[in-house]
Design goal:
The protein has helices at residues 21-38, 101-109, and strands at residues 3-9, 12-18, 44-45, 50-51, 57-65, 70-76, 81-85, 91-92. By secondary structure, the chain is an alpha+beta fold.
Length: 111
Amino acid sequence: MAHRVVVRSGPRVERLDAASLDAALDLIEERARTLARTSRREPVELRYKTFEPVQQVAHRLELRGERRVRAGVDVRGDGSVEAWTGRLRRQVVAQERGESAYAALRRTLQP
């Protein structure tokens, strides 16, 4: 196993293996695009706060690879996608002008 992609959708967890970093990133992009089209959530109202769909992580796709690589994308409740890196402290990957979250993640992880 060179790279593993872990897909979390609510209580469901799916683990997929990829032979290379490029294959793992392609797998993440394909699955996240599919999940983004189908994940629409309503606002969650608590006693003192309301969580809008953009604030909710509907699906998390995590890449675990060689050299302790930890990165992935979060699909939000409104269908938007945000790339991140890190394990315990996730840091959002800044997107350049005209760049998708998938391209930003690929740019960050490619040597």
